[in-house]
Amino acid sequence: MSRYWMQRCLFDHLRELEKIDNDRPADKVETDGYELTDAERTALDRADVGALYELGVHPVLINAFCRQMGWKRADYAVLFPEGEAERMRHNQEVRWLTS
């Protein structure tokens, strides 16, 4: 069930960033109140895209998170484990890699 909490935490963070009066930096995810493992909390605290992917965060959430930080696809595709972005692109698993 921990993957749910990690994705929920990131989803809530992204919704918070959409608020007009929000002044939180995009890479500062608030992890208090979520049932996360130490590895999950560390990945979120460090905005470690590769670790988030390996821990099971859906690529669409990762895409939105990276875009909020002002990164373009080429900036963060290299943060996935070696060859993973190319494998996903080749298998057409995620639309954000092909659009």
Automatic annotation (TrEMBL):
InterPro entries: LigA_sf. It comes from the Bacteria. This is Aromatic-ring opening dioxygenase LigAB LigA subunit. It comes from Propioniferax innocua. The lineage of its organism: Bacteria, Bacillati, Actinomycetota, Actinomycetes, Propionibacteriales.
